[in-house]
Amino acid sequence: MASTQFDRAADYLDLDQSVRERCKWPKRLITVTVPVQRDNGDTEVFFGYRVQHHLSRGPVKGGLRFHPNVSIGEVAALAMWMNWKCALMGLPYGGGKGGIACDPRSMSTRELENMTRRFTTEMLPFIGPETDVMAPDMGTNAQTMAWITDVYSTHAGHLVPSIVTGKPVELLGSEGRTQATGHGVAFTISRAFYKLGIEDTKATAIIQGFGNVGAHAAYTLARYGVTITGISDITGAIWNPKGIDINQLTEHVAKTHGVKDFPGADAIDPEEMLTQPCDALVPAALEQVIHADNAGKLQCRVLAEAANGPTTPEADTILEERGDIFLIPDVLCNAGGVTVSYFEWVQNLQHYQWSEQEVLSKLETMLEKAFENVMHFAETNQMSHRVAALALGVHEVAKVKATRGLFP
Fold first, then answer.
1. Does this UniProt record's set of keywords contain Nucleotide-binding (predicted)?
2. Which of 2, 100, 255, 315 is least crowded, fewest Cβ atoms below 10 Å from its Cβ?
């Protein structure tokens, strides 16, 4: 998917062959084994990955995920998308991504800590504040980042908070980082509504995924006045055409660990929920949930890609032919997380902390600029929003590659 999308953007830009090849392929693909002694005394070996797509514009930036389906191909694709995302947002980063193939829900805190610390130790030759800066992703959180910080700082002999972002605030993390991605998703949806002449207070939204991103997107949309009619997660899907109370749902999820059986809504088939009428459909979980079989059935006005790669190339073709859905591509829609990660990194380098209001205000300013750039480029060149966003990002990377030249 990532390569297909890149090729479309590169074809439009008519990139020189040498620059095109250098932009496409990652700089480093790192695979390590991570042995962990389980609580029952057995030793289990996990496989860990880190892909650094480019270092031409600065250190690579990207999350670390713990999930059973993590593979080197998935991580490489996510690193590529992160590269274009950082360039689109004007951040001085290349794209990175990492992961360990494991099921974190079946592991104790001690096992997760030992696995994280061993993985970090294996990565020490390849990471650093000016080389590779990790962040939380699926299955990881601020505590994971704290363990990575401790390992790296112990080896350095002093605290190095800029080695990761998404840390706890007491460990010099940034205010506003936890809600940054979801807040950015909601903000771009509101901008799309404005373009379409839809009032926030009269709009409805369906959110697939109620993790960190989906939950904060739902909370911010509700604060804007948008009615959330459907929400799903790994436990099931719920539906209430009159609106779901996000605060009550959050309390329910904290107690039951899922949206299933929430008393304020009815159960609905998760696949059926995606094709219900709404103003904004927000896939905020896994990749490839919008595909050839359901793209033609969508009844949303705005498709906001809060997850990475939620729409397959086949579905993209269908949506482009339909022409009635306003797409906010993932490299723009969910860029709030990496943007505030950049703010955290800058704060760490400056040894100065910003307030939450400062952080979210700066985030909205940068998202507004990127949003308008994508819309203007798409309208001027009569192309889809996805190709426009990717072309802008790829063009920035290609310019730097051409300017720096090829080291023999």
1. yes
2. 255
Burial 299-309 (b: 16+ CB within 10 A, else e): ebbbbbbbbbb
pLDDT of amino acid 17: 87
This prediction has a pTM of: 0.91
One-letter amino acid identity for 338? V
Segments making up each domain of the chain, as ranges: 25-168, 174-408
Q: What is the 8-class DSSP label of residue 398?
A: H
Domain 25-168 has CATH 3.40.50.10860: yes
Q: Are 218 and 272 in contact (CB under 8 A)?
A: no
What are the pLDDT digits (tens) for 36-74? Answer: 999 999 999 999 999 999 899 999 999 999 999 999 999
A 10 A CB-CB count for 380 gives: 9
Quote the CA–CA distance of 274 and 282 in Å, as a whole number: 9
> What phi and psi, each to the nearest 5 degrees, are found at residue 141?
-155, -165
What is the arrangement of strands in the sheet containing 326-328, beginning at the earlier edge strand?
A: 266-268, 236-239, 227-233, 204-208, 278-283, 300-304, 326-328
User: Is 171 within 8 Å of 353 (Cβ atoms)?
Assistant: no
Q: Is 181 known to sit in a ligand binding site?
A: yes
- Classify 367 as helix, strand or coil: helix
Would you say 212 is a known binding-site residue?
yes
First to last CA, the chain: 31
Residue 207 Cα to chain centre, angstroms:
15
Same fold, 25-168 and 174-408: yes
Compute CA 112 distance to the chain's CA centroid, rounded to the nearest angstrom. 22
Do 110 and 39 touch, CB atoms closer than 8 A? yes
Q: Which neighbouring-strand residues pair with 35? A: 45
Residue 85 counted as an annotated binding residue: yes
Contact 270, 236 (CB under 8 A): yes
Kindly list the catalytic residues: 97
Assess contact for 83 and 9: CB atoms under 8 A: no
- Alpha-carbon span 335 to 131, nearest angstrom: 20
Cα–Cα nearest to 322, from 354, 299, 353: 299
Q: Which residues of the chain have pLDDT under 50?
A: none
Six-digit token string for 19: 């620059």
The annotation status of 341 as a binding-site residue, yes or no, is: yes
Q: What is the DSSP string of 264-324?
A: TSEEE-HHHHHTS-EEEEEE-SSS--B-TTTGGG--EEEEE--SSS-B-HHHHHHHHHH--
Say which DSSP state 164 is in.
B
